[in-house]
Amino acid sequence: xxxxxxxxxxxxxxxxxxxxxxxxxxxxxxxxxxxxxxxxxxxxxxxxxxxxxxxxxxxxxxxxxxxxxxxxxxxxxxxxxx
Length: 82
What we know:
The protein is rod-shaped and about 95 Å long. It has two domains: 1-31; 42-75. By secondary structure, it is mainly alpha-helical. The chain contains two helices and no strands. The termini are far apart.
């Protein structure tokens, strides 16, 4: 399709058949806006899927880190014998 403009072709065929193509054939701007909207929806869905998969791992990592920090603080606060 790199050598042809499908929208223009359809409009010309419609005109030759006596069909008013106003509002019938999407403009290039409408097609681009639709494609952009679809891409944004896919990105949002992918982000949601990723968050759903990584969410529990992130929570576990934060929990483990907090536990290590608490243990480190307890170790430094304990009196040393010597």
